[in-house]
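Open question from group meeting: does this chain pack into something compact, or does most of it stay loose? Before anyone orders reagents, we agreed to write out a predicted structure and look at it together. Recording both the input and the output here so the notebook holds the full record.
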Amino acid sequence: MSLPEKFVARVVDEMGPTEGRALCEVLEGEPPVSVRLNPDKPRAEFDGEPIPWSRYGLRLAVRPSFTADPRFHAGAYYVQEAGSQFVGHLLEPYDIEGATVLDMCAAPGGKTTLYSTMVGAGGLVVANEIVRNRAMVLADNVRKWGVGNVVVTNNTPKHLAAFENWFDVVAVDAPCSGEGMFRKDHGARDEWSENGVRMCAARQTEILDEAWRALRPGGVLIYSTCTFNTVENEGVLRSFAERMGDELVEAEPVTCETSWGVAEGRVGAFRTYRFYPHRTVAEGFFASVARKRESGERRSVPKPRRRVMNDIGGDARRELSHWVLHPDRMRFAEVGGSLHAYHAGRYDDVRYVSESLNVVCSGVDMGQIFGGKLKPDPALAFFCGLDRDAVPVADLSRDEALAYLRKQELPASLFADGVNLVCCDGFALGFAKRIANRVNNMYPNSLRILKTDL
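Structure tokens returned:
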């Protein structure tokens, strides 16, 4: 499918014939492939080169079959476009380890997992997605990443804004017309229209206003899209800056080497960064950053609607403690009939969020206790703080691991009696339970590989 004619005409008019046609020509080619490694898990090795603005990012020489790579299913890396990793670079001037971050439009989870790594076990990321089925995909990716410091919510921006002046960082990766994805996703071409651009800009404006309410004084606001047009980018920022007045102040500058090919700009207090595919080895992306002026406004949370988390102690706590490396740093709770682990320093904050918003998942789902023993939830296998001495480890070959991920039958001889942690080359994939000569594959149906021609 060719590029929309009106899009081509606009690009040529705005950028000039030479630049505009160069961009359109590149959009008809093959997209580059990049990943971001998970530093809290064993390192996944690739044939690629570092992305200069991303500490753990790599551009790959060739596109592998991610579906056929057990490391992908283990959360050892995230397949993330190089330009979108730039949001982490925007936060480098600030020490956000231990910070509270709101990812307002978070699915499928690339930026959420990046923020999760940056804030660490002492931080908290609230990752929201308004569309329920997309929120479920987000939750799966968060679980696989395994830091255990994320709460995935399914709410409107207005509900999140009720946590007034609460977040150190608010990131709005706004739903947009997707022009920057025309090379990667030809379906985005078919859905594009000039009216759609205007509708997106109106929605983006509403989301930004609610995001601002949630940001604490002195906090950092990031606004990004994967589109080229000025209506959804500079236009939205310009009207927002006019409404906010002197409440909006400049963020700290970041390094942006000329060789990167990123176009820097300004919209009032916002620093802006544009990624054009004919100038950078990345897809189309727009990012901007500013701060909220310091003031004496106090943070507030909405009135709790219900009690969700119940503390766990006694024998149950002792059993759960066997499964984590640092039980003294964790709090355990029962949530909806399942047992969860939370980093102790953020337990109360998770509780505030859980009592006021629609939560899809939070912390680490550990499972349920039967007869004094934990039946582990698949999510526990991905947790970076899992104690691998809790159960025997079955380290499978790649072919055996793929069979496990397809939920196919495996020989009982590969496993010890009882529950096993299933790994491949040291990367944890899930659990399996051997009972005599039968193996119960505990990998979740929602994640299993459905393709057979790998």
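Observations to bring back to the group:
Residues 348 and 354 are 10 Å apart (CA to CA).
The two ends are 27 Å apart (CA to CA).
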